Amino acid sequence: MSKSERLLSYIREGRTMTQAEKLRLIVSLSVPSILAQISATVMFFIDAAMVGHLGARASAAIGLVETTTWLMGGLGSAANMGFSVQVAHFIGANDFESARRVLRQSLVCCMLWSLMITLVAFAVHAHLPYWLGGSADIAHDASIYFLLIGVSGIFFQMEGLAGSMLKCSGNMKMPSALNILMCLMDVVFNYFFIYIFDMGVVGAALGTGVAMLVTAGLMLYFLLVRSPMLALFGHAMKSGRQEKAALYRPTSDVVGTAFKIGAPMGLNHTLMGGAQIVSTIIVAPLGTVAIAANSLAITVESLCYMPGFGIAEAATTLVGQGAGAGQRMLTRSFANLSVGLGIMVMTFMGLLMWVFAPELMAIMSPVEEIIAQGADALRIEAWAEPMFAVSIVCNGVFIGAADTLKPAIMSLTSMWGVRLTLAAWLAPRYGLRGVWTAMAIELTFRGSIFLVRMLRGEWQKES
User: CB under 8 Å to 352, separation ≥6 — which residues?
Assistant: First the structure.
């Protein structure tokens, strides 16, 4: 048994942990996830750079629909978390059979959910670029890219579900390793599709889709066959075939709880995604260069905040298992330590981004104007990274406690009431700088209100 597995067992057994042991456990769970998040960012970084060197039009085509693809991914993640948080709670309570019961139903429900999202993507792909304010010269590539990513949604859903289940069981290393492998495959596949087969923007979508397909298969194997806590194949059961089949049928208690957890997250992702789309519409009139600079700067900035998401995933696991075990003081301690660690890491990353902003943008595009606008945007955003860390990690804490409704309302109020209002007012006056200034102000505001909620302990009252 590894040190992290031993410390995780302390949660289920109700044993006392020192501050050093808590911090060691947070770090041990965070590091694999941070590495995976960074590798994913590097994957998108390389993808964007590959497309960026095809010219501003290619970057703008992907950038135009990028926020909508995030919306689809967010809806898939919300469904996954609705089930995986339940699994974390059951594991914390040492009820592994109930955890496997939730897993079985999640496979069916999430598969159906991903198919619905794919059908919607197919229905709207031809019209979406024009709805977003894109011009005719980039609309065709944008619509095909969006369609192919939408068709790959089922792979993304299954990969995300299996990874989330493994992480909530405390196994961070395997899903993180597989995500890193996916990044490497994505680079290789993209190189062949974009350059060798000369498929341009379409090649970028195909490369990503194939990498997701392979990773989803591997992730499901390690969850359903190899996981000590959650494996379904090879697990001895006393029930007969018909009873086993019935275990995969969705039941009101499991689906109802998943809906209670996931629906606010889904609504949040929908409206936040909608806000990102509106932000794209605000940027679109600024021109092709601004669209490209905005999209590429977002990719670069993700190098800063992805470590925060890695720490947030560890917080979700620890808070979820702590809540299931009924250890309120331990759970709160995990929350405080995780947020502090997130602030330290993302502040350091923000400093690096401020210093090396022009160099990072130069990797993404050879166009001087894109580099200049993107670097200005990144240096504005760098000041918001500490409080952005608070909002990310606090959200991971809230999810682990199954407290998703009020944080979703807070996020939406911040996004729509602060960011978009300011962006719409500042963009005509200050261009892309105005949009990113609005973003930095909003992230600082959101982090502040999330921190107040966490310190008050209201999230534990909801769990």
Answer: 304
